[in-house]
Amino acid sequence: MNGWGSSRRGEEAVELLDAGHGSEEEIAECYHQLGLVNRWLGGFRATFEPLERWTGASGPATILDVAGGDGDYAEQFLARARSQGTEARVYMLDWHPVTIGLAQDRRLNGLHSIRGDALALPFEDRSFDLVHSAAFFHHLSIARACDLLAEMCRVTQRLVIVNDLVRSRVAQASIWALTRGLSGNRLIRHDGPLSVSKAFVPRELEAIARAVEHRTSGEFRWHLTRTFPYRMTLVGARLSGVDR
Asked: Is 107 left (phi over 0), alpha (psi -120 to 50) or beta?
């Protein structure tokens, strides 16, 4: 046990989506409901408030959204750029063919969806202004989370943003009740509470960033913030790319 009240479950606890379960209809409904949760419970806020603090009105022009699911965050990035009167190109990478199809169905100008491996990003060094990932790190072991963060650092020239859940017993109980009360989708009901039990706590995510510092030769400065109720955001700024 630890001060947050629960021990982390590891990769042996597999979410249904990760195991390939679900029809196309179930997966589409699952991501639709996840989008509502992101709006209601601070998921989008956990990405865009830190991004605003670091970039202001001069938002990133090239963005990679790693494990971007159905493209919901990608759409938010494009909408934010339009609201600022700028153009952005968003590349969304995911491994699941159904979610790639859902992203493509959005038919968004400026969105490029790619099927690929998050741990071996198919891009050259410093290809993007921003490399982002939301609610994906909790799927990984500590070692694989370090590998992913190092890959994200490799392909960004400015910023890395990791947005994820915060593990706690209260959060897990709350999500369990929410998914039973508001959703009949078996993917949501199984994977929602399990995601919280697999999530990191702030000090663990900060430890992952410190471990990656050795791989990046101290090229990044890291900052972690909390977003009510159960989200946290790790921002890594390349020292040669952001004047902060």
From this structure: left
Beta strand 156-165 pairing with 231-238: antiparallel
**Predicted structure pTM score:** 0.92
Domain assignment present for residue 6? The answer is: no
pLDDT of residue 244: 43
Residue 48: inside a domain, yes or no? yes
Domain of residue 47 covers 25-238
Residues in the chain: 244
Tokens representing 177 are 């009740």
Q: Is the pLDDT of residue 4 over 50?
A: no
Q: How many angstroms separate the Cα of 108 from the Cα of each of 74, 84, 111, 123?
A: 9, 17, 6, 22
Nearest of 89, 222, 215, 103 to residue 150 by alpha carbon: 215
How many folded domains does the chain comprise? 1
For residues 138 and 67, the answer to whether their CB atoms sit within 8 Å is no
> Residue 168 contacts by C-beta under 8 Å, 6 or more apart in sequence?
4, 5, 6, 196, 201, 230
E-assigned strands of 1-118? 62-66, 89-94, 111-115
Q: What is the CATH number of the domain that holds 127?
A: 3.40.50.150
* Residue 243 within a domain: no
